[in-house]
Amino acid sequence: MLLAVLLGAGCSLSAAQLQSTVAAQVQLTVAAQEPLAVTVIVMMPVTLTLPPVASRTPRPTATPLPATPQVSVEMPPDPKTGVDTGHTLFAENFNLLGTWAVFDTERARGTWRQATYVLTLRDTDEIRWVFNGPRASDFYFEGSVAVGACKAGDQYGLVVRADTDASFYAFGVACGGRFRLLRSLNGVYEEVLPWQASPLLARLAGSTQRLGVRAVGSRFGLYINSQLLGQVEDAELTGGRFGIYAGSYLTPELQVTFDDLVAYPILSAAAAAAVAAAPTALPTVAPPATLEPTATVAVAPTRSALPTSTAVPVVPTMAATAAVPTPTVVPQLAMEGASAEPVFTEDFQIPNYWDQFTDATTRGQIEDGLYRLTLSNLDSAAWALNGIRRQDFYFSGTASIAQCGTNEGAGLVFRAVNDLTYYAFIVSCTGNYKLVEHRNGAVSELLPWTVSGAISRYPAMRNRIGVRAVGALASLYVNDVLLATVPGLELRRGRFGVFVKSNASASVTAEFDDLSAFEIQR
Fold first, then answer.
1. How many CB atoms lie within 10 A of CB 131?
2. Residues 6 or more apart in contact with residue 115 via CB below 8 angstroms
3. Close Cβ partners of 397 (under 8 Å, ≥ 6 residues apart)
4. Mean pLDDT across the stretch 232-242?
5. β-pairing, 5-6 with 38-43?
6. pLDDT for residue 425
7. How many Å apart are CA 344 and CA 396, to the nearest integer?
8. 3 state SS of 308
9. CA–CA gap between residue 1 and residue 32 (Å, rounded)
10. Residue 12: which of 40, 43, 46 has the closest Cα?
11. DSSP assignment letter at 7
12. Which sequence spans correspond to the domains of the chain?
């Protein structure tokens, strides 16, 4: 199988590097093919800018590579054995534009089409891949892949543990009925598991298949339609992002369509037992009737707009590979230990208890029994606080956004010491969530953007968001489903509020309703 080498953006090859890359590429030719005089393609990687740079260099006759993979016997026949299907590391149904790079060059094209992602290889001897999603180490990643007319040697598949654009694993199937696992390490390619034939791959042309990769430590299991194709061990790359790829050999205008990508975490035996024993959904707690406001409610609320991200550095405090951490404690009901009476409720029927304002970039108004918070500034945030302070509680509310894009959303503020120091639990329009800390104007991520299928997405984004804060732990809920429990809270007491986040949209409006907070007794 011929492979075109994608180089790092903005990089060039010396003569020695090019010779090394060509020599490594020569070794990857399929053993079953007759040696041919062929050509290496050197081009720029798929990025958001996508400069169409390409050149050709003669390649010598290929020699088959004898491979002696360390085959593992520990992968289960069922790829979802021990998988936490209640949580997702990454999910993509391609219903929302903007979350994957699109490109169009003379030799290849990547585009959204009818809620799918299509890679088109316009020339033969061409390969392209794109990455997305968070970084992860142990997981089961699968997706639906469809190919039209194709010939033996045309290939496509899934990319996993992509550390950089030149270091990753690629699980591929070929229209000739074979499969393999390829590793790229700093641009040097090696077949971890060489091309092997399988009767499960007899009819790929014109069909849709469900491909899957199960990665646990150094072990990889390769699946098609939930059936095990092969397994192998390799310890070079321990974590990275997810992606897709396609390569043409004999078929110009080869089209490969991807859809319904999802990655699940694989739990340890102890964590799997805890998740199995815990409830997966929580009963909805009906908000109690609004009480007469106390004097503390009338304390003047505050609101502020956050400068763009270039002015406020974001310093992640969790490992990048922990995109969706497994629960650190056994999940518990959000209202466990809560007081019978709420600390406060808010249905926004009385307009006096929240600040209403309009300025150049932000607007907060109580209208139609809702609190509308509008931010008209790129890559910014705005929030408003009420006057009540508590330490341990369950705080929840309904948030909705009519129109927004990637990494834009709404959320709840809690334990706000002042207008510059607080926590914010944010849910995005694309089905992600995160927990951030603002401390004296500096922002850090306690939990980075993480995908969850429990979140209602744009264009019908309306979610019941909740946070249970007890001591140093914050348990995050959406629509009465526990998403994660995050340790390490240092701010132990503060006020409550609402939050809106923009990214690339000129204007984002979030609507809030039915807020309530119940004190947790310890």
1. 20
2. 93, 94, 95, 259
3. 346, 412, 464, 465, 466, 498, 512, 513, 514, 515, 516
4. 94
5. parallel
6. 97
7. 11
8. coil
9. 9
10. 43
11. P
12. 66-265, 280-519
Strand order in the sheet with 54-59: 5-6, 38-43, 54-59
Q: Cβ distance 495 to 389 under 8 Å?
A: yes
In this structure, are strands 508-519 and 481-486 parallel, antiparallel, or unpaired? unpaired
Domain over 66-265 is classified CATH 2.60.120.560: yes
Q: Which residues is 509 bridged to in the sheet? A: 374
Cα 318 to Cα 99, 137, 492: the distances in Å are 23, 14, 20
Q: CA of 375: how far to CAs of 99, 330, 503, 512, in Å?
A: 22, 38, 10, 14
| Phi-psi group of 480: left, alpha or beta (phi > 0 → left; psi -120 to 50 → alpha; rest → beta) | left
Locus of tokens 């003379």: 106
The secondary structure of 405-431, three-state, reads: CCCCEEEEEEEEEECCEEEEEEEECCC
Please determine, for residue 81, whether its predicted confidence score (pLDDT) is greater than 70: yes
DSSP output for 19-63: HHHHHHHHTTS-TTSPP--EEEEEE----SS----EEEEEEPPP-
- For residue 515, give the amino acid letter: L
Least confident of 122-131, 248-257, 264-273, 467-476: 264-273
Interatomic CA distance for residues 411 and 177, integer angstroms:
49
Q: Cis ω on the peptide bond leading into residue 327 (within 30° of 0)?
A: no
Least confident of 49-58, 417-426, 434-443: 49-58
pTM of the model: 0.46
72-81, 189-198, 285-294, 498-507: lowest mean pLDDT where? 285-294
The neighbour count for residue 321, using CB atoms within 10 Å, is 15
Q: Topology of domain 280-519, per CATH?
A: Jelly Rolls (2.60.120)
- Please tell me which residue, 319 or 422, carries the higher pLDDT value: 422
- By the 8 A CB rule, do 312 and 318 touch? no
User: 289-293 long-range CB contacts below 8 Å, 24 or more apart?
Assistant: 289/345, 290/345, 290/346, 290/347, 290/349, 291/341, 291/342, 291/344, 291/345, 293/344, 293/350, 293/353
> Which phi-psi region, left, alpha or beta, contains residue 323 (left: φ > 0; alpha: ψ -120 to 50)?
alpha
- State yes or no: pLDDT of 149 exceeds 80: yes
DSSP-assigned states of every residue in 213-267: EEEETTEEEEEETTEEEEEEE--S---EEEEEEEEESS-TTEEEEEEEEEEEEB-
Q: Give the Cα separation of 33 and 55 in Å (integer).
A: 25
Determine what percent of the chain is predicted with pLDDT higher than 70: 71
Structure tokens at 269: 């035996």
